[in-house]
Amino acid sequence: MLTLLRSLRMNRRLLQDMVRRDLSARYVGSSMGFFWSVIFPLLNLVIYMFVFSFVLNTRWDPGQSKEETALLMLAGILVWQAFAETLSRSTNTLVENQNLIQKVVFPSEILPIYLAISALANMLIGVAIALVGVAFYAWISPIVPEAGAPAPLRDLGFSYTLIALPLLFAVQLVFTTGLGFLFSALNLFVRDVYHVMGVALTVGMFMTPIFYPASLVHKAGLGLVLKMNPMYWLIDSYRRVLIYGLWPHPPVVAAFAIVALLLFFLGATFFLRQKPRFPDLL
Prior knowledge:
Elements: H1 2-10, H2 12-25, H3 36-55, H4 66-91, H5 93-96, H6 98-103, H7 110-140, H8 165-189, H9 192-207, H10 214-219, H11 223-227, H12 230-244, H13 250-274, H14 278-281
Helix pairs in contact: 2-7, 3-4, 3-7, 4-7, 4-8, 4-9, 4-12, 7-8, 8-13, 12-13
């Protein structure tokens, strides 16, 4: 771990430059450029909201409005997309950058890290959109319950609890980077990992309460699945802060931080131990 931290300190300018280039190169050549970062979360929201909110009539609480359901889905989509993007790109990053790894002295350990930072930076745009939506429906055009509908269990709005967001960003970065280290190195030994990752992320997305309430999982007697799903802990924490202005549950954040640190340590250790073999494996 000291070797990794020393490498990050020595190559911090290279890391910053790679993150900057990745963000600017995402939509090079497109007419709307970086504005696609705003369109994508909104487009996904419209699609999933139509399917799960209007067609399937999904609700988290009795009397909940479609607008509140949409905001809850948006928060979950944003977090999951950043997580999925990091894992899918990190898994194949060593293969895609084999020319750098084979021909020059290149700090390959920064590859999973810069991808995780880039995905998190892109996610911040969606977070800003979610906050605008919450502000609109909480204070500018408050949602009026339909006649006879039960009162909502919690009010929309955000507050000073937004100061908890940097902590959530930090533990998310550690968690995704640790998995990125692990799967990027493992993919060199078993190239099928990259192909399996796409299927695993799709399955994981629908196993995580993003488009449906966690109460349905508990009613089905599968509450243990949620207790073993760190991404549910993270998404629920984001929703409490972004949508309702509440503090995340300290035990949940602490448990996620422990899992994130453990995965980071295991992933980074495996990555650095296999690093001398990367040129031969590529």
